[in-house]
Automatic annotation (TrEMBL), chains A, B, C, D:
UniProt organism field: Hymenobacter setariae
Protein name: Ergothioneine biosynthesis protein EgtB
GO BP annotations, alphabetical order: ergothioneine biosynthetic process
PANTHER family the UniProt entry points to: HERCYNINE OXYGENASE (PTHR23150:SF36), SULFATASE MODIFYING FACTOR 1, 2 (PTHR23150)
Record pathway: Amino-acid biosynthesis; ergothioneine biosynthesis
NCBIfam families associated with the record: egtB_TIGR03440
Positions of the Sulfatase-modifying factor enzyme-like domain: 198-442
Keyword Iron-sulfur among record annotations: no
UniProt xrefs under InterPro entries: CTDL_fold, DinB-like, EgtB, Sulfatase_Mod_Factor_Kinase, SUMF_dom, SUMF_sf
Domain DinB-like: from-to ranges: 24-157
Length: 442, 442, 442, 442
């Protein structure tokens, strides 16, 4: 499907960063690598409001470096193009007006080639800045780390947005060929017989500190560290699988209101949902799922993904269980990290469209945190004592702290150096285009 | 404005219930009393989706008794009309299809007179049932208590819906005349000089039990009792007042994005909000508010009400404070109930359209819990261990536990016997037609 | 006003006007008579944008007299209420701002009783003005005639809006009881065996003058008289009947795109139309129609009504015929008026909810012009040389001359003195709540 | 495909067809030439429902040949791709389901390169078919002519859609560089002093035959020829110019309801229109228009274009004139073709984005029929006796014959061999993205 024989080398190369400059280069390279299997046409479209054009992601992440680093810390820096701030500002009111989000997919210009020129221009100036980093105030280094994590967030969005763009096309093209997929990662999908038996792992109650407590980077929404009281609970050792979820479907789960929250039931009926996003049945009734190489039979042993919070919660209701809170999830993760008992939980290295993540060492992929983001029944609200930063970066996280749910873990599309035990991902309850699944609690 | 000289006697008469039968009669009488100042035409309209026609409230509450008590516990009971279950079921999927909520205001029939006949028919049969209550299983008594609280909830909705219906009319008719208002309650609105100085009241941290712990009725969403860890915090001794809020407006609060959550900022701009609901400025710039007798000058000493969560949160941001969580609120309420220090907090007996509540003894009105529902920054989620009941009543609360915020306290429109320290009221963040205000925390 | 024993006297009394003053009184009385069988609640609601509350019609027609006659020609006249111009102006930009049309059904005030007081106030002052009419300039008499025809237009809208309001109620109440219906008009519905055989009546081609050519009132849109060239054509002697239309339905007419205009086909699918408005099938498959006494079996001999232009056109396509143009219709009407051959055409005195029209002499009802408005395939555009009048009345007709179709004839709901051979009624192609049917041409 | 050095050769080469095969080749080449200055990204987007992606036009026109010619007349023909019928069927219900029109801009695949491969594949097979054309039934030749005119219609849409796509981009890129524009056509824009003085040309009344009467191709909607009676009228010798229209704007034309049809006035206010599409004012108040090379000063001598019917009609009302009917327009065009007096009318060879038309001999461009489509006040209805063809082609024109207005003439974007005196173009009254202007009548 490739237009000009893209090398997959960049997809495969994600060396461990040895320094910030090296890490900068690796992250920037990886963004481009994700887009390389696409055609220019694929980088333009926005089939639904949530999905931004890949070209936009490549430019927006570049604008971030320009706006927060180069303009502030590289004397004499001149912006690449005076209109790009209008075109590629995502949502920062502090930074002025911008293209309406719904119109991102109507903009053919600048073309992909110009966006690459923009990236090169900014990378060259960033190289100059990185060489002088030691001389700059610590805030510059902090912004650099933020920029890297920001770009990694958009790498995950690139993966999910590309998947959506290609999947909604009636031609259902694959992102990779079978050969490319085989090359990209030796780890095969989990076989049914490798699946651990579902089991409940007990976690003792108590007062626990939650939030980012180690060295290193975290987003402001992971702070401050604070104590929570958690009652004893149990968590399953593995994610709910496609096979598990199929039983829910076959039991009429999508047709029985009593398992559903009211807004979820309305949604299921309005949208005529009968299965997770990307699932379909062929004429023989066989279940297929759209994945990296196009349509393929559903792997019953893989964790269910691309479900909304409503579907996760309805499944849990049907199963006589519940979703964990984010505090429970974090407490359990800490608990099992330190105990042999955790082994079971850690065994859940299943994944679905793993090649999207393109990790250099797939054997280490996802060991800790699973292959899907896990919906929790916790609202994305500020931690006690949270304060929005002053200026534009105060808009980064704080203004979204309502009407969304926290997801924990990470997915096959999350860059590995971006995964953290305290990471608070968040989406509205109806969203399905992310790699979202669930783990039962009780 | 009255069509046939309604006596206000029922409005004034709300005797303390001495028994369930007496209480049943008092509650049923009070619903009718609330509608009595209206004309038949006023009872039909639905000016916005949230606001149900008063006629619908009178019928729906009656349908509740018929459906849950009479059909189950009165042998041989025949429903008043076979179509009323379709017309007056609110949201119970368990009980079949029903009129679309958005269409309630398109239905002129049954007319108000028939709804009153329906009420009389059901009350007569309920009298029979109440006389035999001791012979019935305990579940019948539980349903009776639930039905009373259900009807009281709709009394508050009647008050707020009537206010909305009359206020949106270009004629801005009052609900009561000045004379009726004067008769209905001797307590005057707070004078500016009676206003306590705002002060911060400290509450010690610790592990607290929250949830309904006393004897008597509570909704299922107030259970189970469970422990929470609360860090030390401070709460203000009084609600934010109209005068306080006016300073926020005059400081440009509605025009500065940095105080607002993202969805709130979009809403403010989309709806061109510049003040709380029911506020307006006359040609001289004087601030007016729509209240029980129509338009009147804004009382700066009264608590601000009819604000959305977004406005409450933006105010708190502007004031350098925050909204309390629902746990903090409940902990503080218990704390101050038991301490002399609480006196300040308890002094906030301000109110706006108090006559709607029609309490028998206004001197006792609102002493504990304020005059407005107080927005908390807590999502309306199930308490740990919460289980939805089986059957239709499982739909009463549980299916709404997402995307709404908890409000605590009670308002001038809340029947006094309906106010509870553990009561969890809940609305979406954009709603303003309830008596909703805020109290600052830090 | 009472629902239990409505007097039908006013419904029946519509004496032939002997003078303008008498005619004024008769017309004004008839508007009230149409509303008399309703309850106050029925007069408030607006179940769809096109349908105005009956209370609004009663007030708007009164505002018309006040605005165009009393304010201009009765010295010292004081308006009944200063806000009524805002409330009851329909669409005259010349006369200032007004209630949004979509909000008419949200307004409970002024109540029906106040609207009657308004009518009485205006009628009393109109009596004074009518007594002096001879002294006033001729323009006053012209406005008086316009006002009478304006009110008659709203009488037809009252009939169709009331029908819609009652029909959409799940209780499907009748407008009249069977007894009232029997009293109101001796003429029974047509029996199947009374139905004339459909036949084609030829009309010779030629140059014809069209437009209002007689003495007496016409709207400005019926002028100027102008010549048109019409090719020879044939018209059917009777309207398409319910029985005819049922054959179209049973032949799959609503499921075959090839009979439909593109926008009609989209509409049929979007709205899931399978039959005319007010038709339904009971559990036994019997066809019913909602009419003056509620649901009743469909009369196959009656003309089909309550169909959109799209349905009329699709029927004609299916039948291998077409709709006439408005010029053809007018030419044919003049032609058959003057020829014995026309007798067949004139035999179509069928009607459906005839009591709504409340004609004094039902034997003369509709002889000339049929019982349904007949869709023509002519756009409602200005006649050659048409000029909008100056001032507010220039908005009466001219600004609507686009995107609507002309209907000719008249319906059982059209006051008889309002029917004219040159009358140009007009509606958008998708409207069905008027008494609209068709007659085939070829 | 390259953006840097587009060859304009194909744009300039449009040799007069000497045979159908040659004409086929010329038309097909011209479609590609129109897209050549674009980047692949430009060919994907759909910024508004009416505007289809250029890539879609290139594929849909190809699908038309495949579907109507190759599948029917080339034995053994195999379709290029089995899914393309779903992707590129525009609106033919006869030919099955298809992509929702609103989703055309969400489809990145097939990429432009594949669409070109599709075109080549079909052209090669068409060459075979064209070589055998003499042996095929006459219907094949008729379909060939229809296909050529179909593709020419899409060439005009390509021009207008490309203009819209580029204009809505905040970068406002030009379609051509100044140099390319200069090369493409020697004829310069009209100078102000070359503008003929507006004058009224009288046309005598009488019975005229209208409709396609010559040899050669016409669409079915131009038939049957039929007689109309036209009263004497006058038409202006030239189109209304930008300068004329600016006087309307400066006189407050967009702010005074009395010039507007009701639906037009609502639209103007809802969309905040203050000028034709593509007009803007810079900071100095100078009027600019978006054209082939991007933004440029408004040429007051050029005909106003990109106005809706509502704006055309409002201008005419303001000017004390009216729009012609389509019959008047056609009668006048025939009249002036044959009279020296017509010279004035024919002098209006003004044009705006003329390079889009890319005519071989620009000196002959537009002499007869003006540079903008001219709105008439005639509904697009069937001519008397019109019959839709059987089969899919019956959907070509007939199903659109409602709620649209006829435009006559042709525009700078209309291929010259596609312009006909009897041509009935049609659009909804609110559309502005075509080259639409007006000529006054009285």
């Amino acid at each position: 499907m490739s237009s000009s024989s893209p090398s997959l080398a960049p997809v495969l190369a994600a060396p461990a960063p040895t320094s910030l400059a090296t890490h900068y280069q690796a992250v920037r390279t990886q963004s481009v690598a994700l887009v390389q299997p696409l055609l220019p046409e694929d980088t333009v479209v926005q089939p639904t409001l949530d999905v931004s054009p890949p070209k936009w992601h490549l430019a927006h992440t570049t604008w971030f470096w320009e706006t927060f680093l180069l303009k502030n810390y590289l004397p004499g820096y001149e912006v690449f193009h005076p209109e790009y701030a209008f075109l590629f500002n995502s949502y920062y009111n502090s930074l002025g007006s911008r293209v309406n989000r719904a119109d991102r997919g109507t903009l053919s210009r600048p073309p992909l080639a110009d966006v690459y020129r923009y990236r090169t221009y900014v990378d060259e100036h960033m190289a100059t800045l990185l060489a002088r980093l030691a001389e700059l105030p610590p805030a510059a280094t902090e912004l650099l780390e933020l920029g890297l994590h920001h770009e990694q967030q958009h790498q995950e969005l690139l993966a999910t947005d590309i998947k959506y763009i290609l999947s909604t096309n009636p031609l259902a093209p694959g992102y990779l060929t079978d050969e490319q997929l085989a090359m990209s990662n030796e780890k095969s999908e989990p076989a049914a017989n490798s699946l651990p038996t579902a089991a409940w792992l007990p976690v003792p109650g108590g007062i626990y500190a939650v939030g980012h407590q180690q060295e290193g980077f975290s987003f402001d929404n992971e702070l401050p560290v604070h104590e929570v009281l958690v009652a004893p609970f149990e968590l399953q050792n593995r994610l709910v699988t496609n096979g598990d979820f199929l039983r829910f479907i076959e039991a009429g789960g999508y047709r029985q209101f009593q398992f559903w929250l009211g807004e979820g039931w309305d949604l299921v009926n309005r949208e005529s949902w009968t299965a997770p996003l990307y699932w379909s049945q062929n004429a023989d009734g066989q279940w297929l799922r759209y994945g990296p190489t196009g349509l393929a039979p559903l792997n019953l042993a893989a964790p269910v993904s691309h479900i909304s919070f409503y579907e996760a919660d309805a499944y849990a209701q049907w199963a006589g269980a519940r979703l964990p809170t984010e505090a429970e999830w974090e407490v359990a993760a800490r608990h099992f990290e330190a105990t042999p008992q955790g082994g079971n939980w850690l065994e859940t290295g299943h994944f679905d469209p793993q090649p999207l993540a393109a990790n250099a060492d797939p054997t280490q992929c996802h060991q800790l945190l699973g292959d899907c983001w896990e919906w929790t029944y916790s609202a994305y609200h500020p931690y006690p004592g949270y304060q929005r930063a002053a200026g534009a970066l105060g808009e980064y996280n704080g203004k979204f702290m309502l009407n969304q749910l926290v997801l924990r873990g990470g997915s096959c599309a999350t860059p590995e150096s971006h995964i953290r035990l305290t990471y608070r991902n968040f989406f509205h309850a109806d969203k399905r285009w992310q790699f979202t699944g669930l783990r039962l609690a009780r």
